[in-house]
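Input record (one chain):
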Amino acid sequence: MNTLKELYEKYGQSPWIDNLSRAWIISGRVKELKESGIRGLTSNPTIFANAISNSNDYDNEYFSLIKTKDTKSAYWRMACDDVAAAADVLEEVYSSSEGTDGFVSIEVDPGLAHDTSGTIEAAQWLWDTIDRKNLMVKIPATLEGLPAITESLSRGISVNVTLIFSLRRYQQVMDAHIQGLHKARQQGHKLNEISSVASFFVSRVDTKLDPILEALGQNGQRLLGQTAVAQAQAAYLLHQERYRQSDWKELSGAGAQIQRPLWASTSTKNPNYSDLLYVESLIAPNTVNTMPEKTVLAFLDHGRMDNQVPNFAKNSQEVLQAVRELGIDMEKMTDELESEGVDSFSSSFKELLAALEKKRALA
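The corresponding structure, as predicted from the sequence alone:
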């Protein structure tokens, strides 16, 4: 048994991969990853921008599509085709896990991050167009995204809530999930067929905070590379607390699936840190870790496993308290990270469409 399979079977954490391309589907790479123990797949605007802009794999389909479609519509057709094909490969995992794994995620247009009604409409369109039970539609955890999460879940749409950076926002996301399932139940949907994960972004916290800590001298420097993990650990403890409450127990009794925390942005950006810092430190039951391919390969090669939950409370409390005592406003910082994340995905999407427009001009 390799480390990916052991991670799931012994420790209850599902390893997903954060990448998708047409080449992966054609070559059978998605199937290989599934057989190695990968149990889900996520995509985002940056991933699709890299896949489509930096290869010729989509050219034949694109040039055919633009005979009758505008550039953006052609993009969505190609992206939906990729996601549907990957979902078909992972359907076996979805079935064998009784609908708890085997998902492929696609994000709504990032330009809708502050548009509630537009997000709901886009989520419904993606759900209807791709038409796979093991699809998850990614909706950002902006203030405007929260009611869209609730409404989408209430319609029976499985949702991957993305761009969560703060503990405060994560609590709101869990509430939105539970409210959505209450509404779904009232509307007669089968709760066991509605899935959700909450993508809590990890490494970007250290990337943003470490320069601030470095400038604070010895007291700050001793905390380098620790805040991101500590905050994710605190999020897991909030998750455990929230899903013990009575409103959730009522839904669970009716067949509802818990919304699992998903650790996102788990590649190590700082070469001074372990390449598996954001994987090995966050092993916990009923969670997901979605890793880029490089991190997946590193974990297969030299990953070490242990249930880290017994350390979560002490470590997260000590680190976050020390950060606060240095005068760092974590809420302000994580608000900035959310804004930067939305802007980053939006920029990637605009760059992608611009690249496709250039190709269109050559047709």
